[in-house]
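User: quick one, fold this
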Amino acid sequence: MALEAVPVPLNTHTIDLTRVVDHYASPTDRLQVSTAPGPDGIVRRIEVRSEAQAGASDWIVFALANPSDEQIDRLLVAPHYRLVGSGILWPDLGSTRIVAVTPSEGFAPERIASAESDVFRITLDPGAIVTYVAELGSPNLPQLHLWEPDAHEETINSYTLYRGIVLGIAGLLALFLSVLFVVKGTAMFPATAALAWSVLAYISIDFGFWHRAFPVAMTSEPYWRAGTEVGLAGALLVFLYTYLHLHRWHVRYSHVAVGWLVGLAILAGMTVFDPSFASGIARISLGLTAVVGLLVILVLSIRGFDRAIMLIPTWAVLLFWVAAAWLAVTGRIDHAALQPALAGGLVLVVMLIAFTVMQHAFAGGQLAQGLISDAEQKALALVGAGHAIWDWDVARDRLETGREVERLLGCKRGAVDGPIRTWLDAVHPSDRPRLEAVFDAIVQSRRGRIHQIFRMRASDGHFLWFELVARPIVGTDGEVMRCTGTVTDITDEKVAEERLLQDAVYDNLTGLPNRELFLDRLHAALTRSRVDRLPAPSVIVLDLDHFKAVNESFGYSVGDSALLAIARRLSRMLREQDTLARLQSDEFAAIILSETSPDALMQIADEFVAAVKTPVAIGDTEAFVTASVGIATASGETAAELLRRAENAVYAGKRQGGDKCIRSDGTLAAIEARFDLASELQQALDGGDIDLEYQPIIRLPDGSIAGFEALMRWQHPKLGAVAPQDFIPIAEETGLIVQLGVFALERAARDLAGWQAGMPAGSWPFVAINVSSRQLFRHDLINDVKAVLARTGVAPETLKLEITESLVMQNPEYAAKVLTRIRELGASLALDDFGTGHSSLAYLQRFPFDTLKVDRAFVRPNGSSARPIILRSIIRLAHDLGMAVVAEGVEDEAESRELRETGCDYAQGFLYGRAMPSQMVQQILRRAEPVAKAS
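Assistant:
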């Protein structure tokens, strides 16, 4: 009978083929089957021969159809083992499911290595209907899915973290309980530890961790799985017997437990001969242990045995887990997350058992009741809380505070006792009138509550903070007899509060005002100038250039010392009416009221820059720092807006290379528009509005495509296409360039992997990705490249990082180290915009570049007779250093011809094509047509 083809839509992540395949059991090693009708309606017949063995064989047959006009790549996945539906007696413990897959047309699917499943990559051409004949390694096929590759990878990765956490918790539990056995030495600890180790071994097999830790063949996995299930059943039985001290209740408990354990020991030996049978008996034993254990626990709980009572909640969770496991193995419930959820639940059961054991083992016994009086309990509570008695006998005017207050004040015994006036003499003069008024009001009104915070003078002259809480006691005559309460030393709390208040407005390193206090003072200065018609204040913001390199080279303690030295230098340069503040880590700001003329303000800014440039001595070495300075004078805006204008001027100076003094002449609207664009850039990166396009790079000798340069594109919902020269500088300023760089690296590598998947190894193209300064000079770039290569599986030499000449010259020593490490990973390196910077040939030969990109200024004719000579010299220099040459900006055939004649290797420009999406690149590579013909 003809098969009905299963359509494979483009937007579907997974298709369950388990119930749509046809199973065949052939008595020979061959199978003949009819194919599904093709697009032409013709049914064909094919014969497939077994690759695994001679004789009887098992097969499945299914057909897939690609209704779209695009080529589809899918993964055929058959897991080796599934707990769901595996059965109780003689369960299916896993094996190789699919030996080979034969299509009715096209190439045989490629097997992808996997320790947990049989995975084959299937490619369907547009409009194709293909019948697949798969030879089975065993008669059972629990599950068969057709996955979209990225979705399959995401599904696997989504469980990786969960499995790691569960394994980590199980391992820690087993190790912790083993250590407790050594420390405590009671019998229930080794039983609990054995249960924890059994659970750890079981989930290690279930999660595939056992294969990574030990060289276990697939054929031996059922034996290991059966062994761990037998061990788990035995460990649970041993724990129940040991924890409940069943041998103390009746000798028959011991007889049953010992006989049960002997049977499980025999069963453990049977795993070598029949692991499926041993596993089935172990599963039945585990369920019986849970049910019988519940009955025993209930009986002992009725008798008042505290251990049994404490175990009831944990055992209820265990019974729930056993019920869920029974529903799973019998196939009554089925879900992709069920198997890992049951493994996590098993670890949760062990965790609850461990808590129960520790709660009982380390309990200190019940508190004795009725051994102390109520008054003694209250006295102990006061001592434990750290309070001292405060008792004022109003009728006798006698105050007693106890020895604790006298000890804190360093006074002699009885020094603050006596009349209330004696006690008030030790109170701070500022707090004394308030306390006197409160005491008088309480005595006169004969009601109320005293809650006061005050200071008292110690014997050494400093003051301590105390909190007084007291109530009046009224006699039978209606008058206040006494006031009684507690007094508490709160000096540490008040000091911490004052420190918090200090830190709220002052920088804790330099002692300068912070941003909040700076803005407050700037607001006051603006108000004063507006009300009193005084000259408008000015703001100078100073931001250190590349100060992060000082912290990375010398350490943060040295960086803090340098900041403190710079703060002192700047403070000495300002007049009394001016204010200097530290806004953030390496940014300072000053409110200038002493000068108003633009020339004077520029002179102060120049003096700031000169002060920062003075080397900071660090041991035997000196640190050299530069700064970018922005100046803004008030023109009717708020304090925050004036500060933003000055900071914007600083950022403008940094974009020009730093070590600049810039006056802010822009409007606040322009500043806010720039900040809005930065915020929208972050949203675009999170929302997927940033994408990559690829401009082809061709081989000049034959005109074929050698690779592509990845170019970033931003499609703004309102502004339309935003040019890179508009949003890349903003990304540099805000730090988003790092996220953009990581995005470009991962996306380009993923697209490159997709292109290479359908091409022979010798014709793989490369992709060049631009690297920013923040990426190059941060330590994560090497790890980012390593992670991308590992995740995507692209050939390392086809991933090319482009670094501009001016960028590497910012810190050539550090750049050389980073580039060498990246080159050791196998990635390629290209030096971009060669000839436009100020590089030294001595440095050039130290960098491990394999490609040199010539700037378009040397490619396009400009009327200079020296240009062709320089171009030939650059190409000859690169070839002598063993580097390939790429010419940028080629726009007409004359330029292309000149480059071929001078020996240039590659070229890119509008002559060969503009940047294009990844899908178009895929189509071009599939056609494998040259972009330009060599003349």
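User: anything notable?
Assistant: The CA atoms of residues 376 and 445 lie 32 Å apart.
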